[in-house]
Amino acid sequence: MRKLRTIGSSTAAVLLAVLLSSFVGEPSAHADDTIKHPGDHPDYKLELEPHGLFAWEDFYGGTGFGAGGRFTIPVVHNGFVPSINNSIGISFGLDLVHYSGCYYRGAFGEVGCGANYLFFPVAMQWNFYVAERWSVAGEPGLFIYHGFFDDDYCGPGISCGRPDRTGLRPMFSVLGRYHFNEKISLTMRVGYPTFSIGASFFL
After folding, report:
1. Which of 1, 40, 102, 121 is the most exposed place for a label (fewest CB within 10 A)?
2. Signal peptide span per the entry (predicted)?
3. Rounded-to-integer distance, Cα 22 and Cα 81, Å
4. Could you tell me if 125 and 139 are in contact, meaning their C-beta atoms sit under 8 angstroms apart?
5. In terms of DSSP H, where are the helices of 41-160?
6. What is the dihedral of CA 164, 96, 188, 5, to 10 degrees?
7. Can you tell me the distance from the alpha carbon of 25 to that of 6, in angstroms, rounded to the nearest whole number?
8. In angstroms, what is the C-alpha Rg of the chain?
């Protein structure tokens, strides 16, 4: 990727305005041909990505919030499509999510409330460097999960379910990065099982 000029610190409002203008401004204001130059992207050995996250209402009785991180190792500098600017990496992660809702609501009120889950995602990261400061990626993969919570109590003679404590599920995410320079980016990921926003550090 062409040498980027370092962007100094700014207020959240200014940053938001820059991001929005990049999407909705005139095409001539942000269009470039970075995507047409294979290999024109940061050369790094490891991407570290700490983030905060939001988890969909799927594992327990409510939506969850937490924090975690990813580290991604690039494995193919020029990706599956040799005519465009793309690369392939393998991404590993650890996320901790707290659910404060109740899995079961019965005659005895709200019982079994609250749980903590660990997610261990492993995914292929296919990166596309679409502009000088923008890259996007798709991440198909799998994740292992494990939950920590008390056994549900549903009362004498009442049968009720129990959430899965441990398992393996497929995952898929789409992420976007705004590159402040060749070493740091703002990174947002949307998908299953979580939505996250954080920063990427390219080492």
Report:
1. 40
2. 1-31
3. 26
4. yes
5. none
6. -160
7. 22
8. 21
